[in-house]
Structure formats: structure tokens, C-alpha cells
Design brief:
Elements: H1 3-21, H2 26-39, H3 45-49, H4 55-72, H5 75-87, H6 91-108, H7 111-129, H8 134-148, H9 156-167, H10 179-200, H11 207-210, E1 219-224, E2 246-252, E3 255-256, E4 271-276, H12 278-287, E5 305-314, H13 331-335, E6 338-344, E7 347-349, E8 363-369, H14 370-378, E9 383-384, H15 398-413, H16 419-432, H17 438-444, H18 447-465, H19 468-480, H20 485-502, H21 505-523, H22 528-539, H23 549-557, H24 562-587
Antiparallel strand pairs: 1-4, 1-5, 2-3, 2-4, 5-8, 5-9, 6-7, 6-8
Length: 590
């Protein structure tokens, strides 16, 4: 084994450890691996730049834009309204129609936005049925995964595997090549959730109910301490607030004293922000110790009391809040909104919030005026989990958006043009016809996924150019060549499935895909069934909330614990592995 091969394998191991331990965001880890290979001369700069000519990432980006057009034209909202009408107050009917509708929608558009947009609808539907949202959100995510395996454009993993196959000299995957085996697996997966999985689903309380927020406390009041107030020199504990009032902040000049409120000694001009009810507001006005009149000669702002709401929201994949410290967001100053707590990985965090860095799928408990929260949503900061967000929908352009995605799929299926070119044309059409505004279209692209793919393609290039892939294949072949093709197919599926539960499904596809193809060729088998095994297994992430973006999103939104996914997902993973080994060779012989 050469030094280059040892170094590449060491980088590969380091990448998987970093993915698992989350030392850095996955895309940073992947690009870091490529940077090491470039710096050590294992791959040249020019060779690395070739990964940007791979058709898969540009196709994925364009499909994000087409999905955004379907969202903006109200197609997904129509699906959600249809599901609510069909539920009729029954959990069983809710599951059946929700999963069927989600599978269908996810087959034709990227499944991550499907889950993000249907989550608030499912939370509302759960309330109408009388069950906890946790009874519907894991099935929602799993149904989106099922649907994503039905067509080439259903998930970025399928498109990426087609690119991997092409790079290895194999024919690209066609639009509906995986549809029939995918339908069988989707039907079995749905039946499992209806007849068995639903009894394993937990009842989890939402963040707001856990923290005991009461909707009757409807006002956010800003109170000014005048110079002659009897509370000057007093602490907050000395203020005459009843049990219905909650002090959120003390603002002195432009400085928030929220972190040290227990030690604050009040001074003239301090502004106290409280959440309270109407009776408390009237009592404070009568007391006279706080000011409720117009701006005085000191230049302090007038005191206001705004009707507020308490709502749950989630950090979306493209949110500008993602990766930033809470203290740097300035939500109070920009929007008049207070962040009360964060739910992350089955923990409810309400202490030391300023020092937390927000992550994708964090669930936030927000308090503030509706106008401020609405502006925060419009700026693309959060996804409303309390109710579907009100956005201006362009329903009249829905036929154009639907026609664009159908044309891309059909023309690709008939080999009129490669899907990358068709996706570019389709994306341009929906932007030029204003199905979606260009700025919204480009915001819809998940650049984290794209750069993760670029970084992993660079690492894959290093594995190939140093002969490490051939070395690994020779090592594996020497130990499994006595096994039959079914056993080898099962081993490839299980390996991919286990890895995708721990790290990104796209990263696993890029790494395992070339190995599986080379292994099949070395043993004299047709690579196609092995390509399909990797593609299905890379998407079939059910046992953990970290292997697939849709699982990650509902993980916090539903208030789940990590073990909830293990209980529901492990049996489904085993079932899918058995079905895949039986079904794939029927449609793709060895």
C-alpha cells in the first residue's frame, strides 16, 4: 500500500468520524477533505475543478427551483387541504391519505420541501383528530422518503447516483427505471406504518405545551420607569406584578440586561418588557409608577402594549439564522420578537440561549407581535409550525409549474435530452413566467447539499486516482467471491443502509456507489442491481433522525426522542433490506 493510498484512507476515516461527531457542518468536512487532497498533490487543482462539471449537482439545483415553483403556485397547499378534508377526524384515515398524498408529491418534487410545507398542516390535522403531532410527523417523513425513490427527480440522491453511474462508465439512470420496485417498497412501507408502525409511534408534547405557555397572556408591554418613580433603586422582584406577568427584558439605553435581570437595580429611563394580560396592564396604568403617556422631554420612546402571540417555528435548510449565535440575531431589535426556548435533539433549552448557535431543524418558541413574526417569516428566517405560513400564492400559474415538471420528466424518460439540460430549461421557464421570483428561486437551492456533493466528489476522485478503490475492491473480493450474488447484494445494501443512518445519504452514495460498481464488474456481475441497491439503501434512512433531512426536520418539530426513531425505524430498515434483496434482482437481473 502506497503512502498516497494510506493518506486517502486516513482522510476517509476522518471524514466519517467528523460526520458522525458533527465537529463541523458536513459540507465543510467534505470540502476540507478535498482541500487536503489538493494540498498534498494527490489530486490537482484542475482535476478537482472537473467535479463542478458533473451533471448531478446542477440538476439537483434546478430541481430545487422547480419544487419552489410548485410551492409558490399553491400546488402543495392544495394537497394539504385535500388531506385535511379526507381525514374526517380519524387517525387511520389521516395516516392513509397523508402517506399516500406525500408519496405521490415526493415522487415529482424534492421531498425535503414537501415535508417542510406539510409539517404545519399535519400539526393542525393532529389537533383536529385529537392526537399529538408526533403521531403524524414520523409517518410524514417516511412517506416522503418512500416517494423520493419512485422517480429520478424524487430526491437528490437518485440524481447523484445517476451521475456516479455515468462517471463509472455505466448508462445514466432513466426517469422511471426504479419506479416499479420503488412502488412495491413504498406500498410495503406504507402498510407497515398503517398496521404496525402507528402502534409504535409515541405521544410527545410540543415545545410550547412543555413550557406551559398560556395563550391568555396576550400582551407584550414596554414600560418606562420615570425619574420620580418609587421603583427607582428597586429590583424587579419589588415590582407589583402578579403571577400572570413575566418579565422578558430590561433595556437600558440600547443595551439589553436580559442575562443579568435578577441583579438589575432599576434606574430612571429603564424600559421593562413584560408579557401579561389586559388586567395587569390596566393595574399598572392606575398605579402611576410607570409611564403610559407620550414621549417626554427626556427623549425616551413612548410605552406601548402590542397584542402578541406565542408560536413554534423551525429553522429551515436555507434560513439566514442557521449557524449563527442567538445573541447576534438581534431579534428583539429587528422584529420585536423574543426567543423563549429552543428544542433540539429531545432537549428543551431555555438557559444560556445567547451562547447557542442555531442549527437546521431547531424548533424555536417565539413571543412577539404578529407583525414582527410575520416579517421574520418573510425574511426567510423561520418556518411556522403553528400554522401554514400565509404567502402570496400564484394559483393561476400552477398549470405552468405542473407542466414544466411533467415535461422535464417525460422528455427525460424518452431520452429527448439529458435531464440536466431539461432541468435548466424547466427552471428558466418557471422563473421567466413568474411562477416563482428569481430571488426566491435561488434562495430555494440548498447550497449546503451542493457543496457537500462537490467535496465528496473530490474525495471520490482521490480514492479513484490513487487506486484505493481498486485496492479495497480486491480486498473485499478475496473474502466474498465464494458468496452468491444475492448475498453480495444484501451486503452492499446493508452496508449502505448502516452508513446512511450515521452520515449524509448523498455522501454515502458518492463513496459506496463507485465501490459497488467496481465490485460487481470484478465479480463478473451486471452493476445495475448494485447501483439500485445503493440508491434505495442510501434513501432508506428510518432508524435515526440524522441520516436524512426530512427526519432531522420532524425530529425537533415533533418533540421526538432519539429512541423513537429506533423503535419505529429499525424494523422498517430490516423489512426494506429483505424486500430489496428479493425485488431488485427481479427487475435488474445479475
Amino acid at each position: 500500500m502506497s503512502f498516497d493510498q494510506i493518506l486517502v484512507l486516513a482522510v476517509l476515516v476522518a471524514v466519517f468520524i467528523s460526520f458522525f461527531r458533527e465537529f463541523y457542518p458536513p459540507e465543510v468536512t467534505a470540502l476540507g477533505a478535498s482541500a487536503i487532497l489538493i494540498a498534498t498533490g494527490i489530486i490537482s487543482t484542475n482535476d478537482f475543478l472537473k467535479v463542478f462539471s458533473n451533471s448531478a449537482p446542477i440538476t439537483i439545483a434546478m430541481m430545487f427551483i422547480l419544487s419552489a415553483a410548485l410551492e409558490r403556485t399553491g400546488v402543495l397547499e392544495w394537497i394539504g387541504e385535500f388531506l385535511k378534508r379526507q381525514a374526517r377526524g380519524s387517525l387511520l384515515r389521516s395516516l392513509l391519505f397523508m402517506m399516500g398524498g406525500t408519496v405521490a408529491a415526493s415522487a415529482f418534487m424534492n421531498n425535503t420541501p414537501v415535508v417542510i410545507l406539510l409539517t404545519p398542516i399535519m400539526i393542525s390535522l393532529a389537533g383536529s383528530v385529537g392526537v399529538a403531532p408526533s403521531r403524524l410527523l414520523i409517518p410524514l417523513s417516511f412517506a416522503a422518503i418512500f416517494g423520493g425513490t419512485l422517480t429520478l427527480v424524487g430526491t437528490s440522491t437518485n440524481i447523484l447516483m445517476s451521475g456516479v453511474a455515468t462517471e463509472a462508465g455505466q448508462p445514466p439512470i432513466s426517469m422511471f427505471e426504479m419506479t416499479l420496485p420503488g412502488l412495491i417498497m413504498a406500498a410495503i412501507g406504507t402498510a407497515y406504518m398503517i398496521f404496525a408502525g402507528r402502534f409504535l409511534l409515541p405521544d410527545r408534547a410540543s415545545l410550547s405545551s412543555i413550557l406551559g405557555q398560556q395563550q391568555k397572556r396576550r400582551f407584550l408591554a414596554r414600560l418606562l420607569i420615570p425619574g420620580d418613580s418609587k421603583f427607582v433603586g428597586k429590583t424587579l422582584a419589588d415590582l407589583p406584578f402578579n403571577g400572570n406577568a413575566r418579565v422578558l427584558d430590561v433595556v437600558r439605553g440600547e443595551v439589553s440586561l436580559r442575562r443579568t435581570m435578577k441583579e438589575v437595580v432599576l434606574e430612571p429611563g429603564d424600559r421593562i418588557v413584560i408579557k401579561t394580560d389586559t388586567g395587569e396592564i390596566l393595574g399598572l396604568r392606575e398605579d402611576g409608577a410607570v409611564v403610559f403617556n407620550d414621549m417626554d422631554e427626556s427623549g425616551f420612546e413612548p410605552v406601548t402594549a402590542d397584542q402578541t402571540i406565542t408560536m413554534e417555528a423551525s429553522v429551515g435548510p436555507n434560513s439566514h439564522l442557521r449557524g449563527r449565535l442567538v445573541r447576534d440575531l438581534k431579534l428583539r431589535r429587528k422584529y420585536g420578537v423574543y426567543l423563549m426556548a429552543i428544542h433540539r435533539q429531545d432537549q428543551n433549552l431555555s438557559e444560556e440561549l445567547p451562547d447557542l448557535r442555531l442549527q437546521f431543524a431547531d424548533t424555536l418558541l417565539l413571543e412577539g407581535p404578529m407583525e414582527g413574526i410575520q416579517r421574520l417569516m418573510e425574511d426567510g428566517g423561520i418556518v411556522n409550525l403553528t400554522a401554514p405560513a400565509d404567502k402570496p400564492l400564484r394559483r393561476g400559474k400552477a398549470p405552468i409549474a405542473i407542466a414544466a415538471i411533467v415535461a422535464v420528466m417525460l422528455l427525460s424518460a424518452f431520452d429527448v435530452m439529458p435531464i440536466a439540460g431539461l432541468a435548466v430549461i424547466g427552471a428558466v421557464v418557471v422563473m421567466m413566467t413568474r411562477c416563482v421570483d428569481p430571488e426566491d428561486a435561488f434562495e430555494a437551492i440548498d447550497w449546503h447539499i451542493l457543496f457537500l456533493i462537490f467535496g465528496m466528489l473530490g474525495l471520490s476522485q482521490g480514492l479513484e486516482s490513487t487506486g484505493t478503490v481498486a485496492l479495497v475492491v480486491e480486498f473485499v473480493v478475496a473474502r466474498i467471491e465464494w458468496m452468491g450474488p444475492l448475498a453480495i447484494l444484501a451486503a452492499v445494501y446493508v452496508l449502505t443502509s448502516v452508513l446512511t443512518e450515521m452520515v449524509s445519504n448523498n455522501a454515502v452514495a458518492v463513496l459506496v456507489g463507485p465501490l459497488a460498481i467496481a465490485l460487481a464488474l470484478q465479480l463478473g456481475f451486471d452493476p445495475r442491481p448494485f447501483i439500485m441497491a445503493v440508491m434505495f439503501a442510501a434513501s432508506a434512512s428510518f432508524a435515526t433522525p440524522i441520516g436524512y433531512q426530512t427526519n432531522t426536520f420532524v425530529y425537533s418539530a415533533g418533540g421526538y426522542k432519539f429512541r423513537d426513531f429506533l423503535i419505529v425505524g429499525v424494523p422498517l430498515n430490516i423489512l426494506f433490506a429483505v424486500i430489496a434483496v428479493i425485488v431488485i434482482p427481479i427487475f435488474f437481473p445479475f
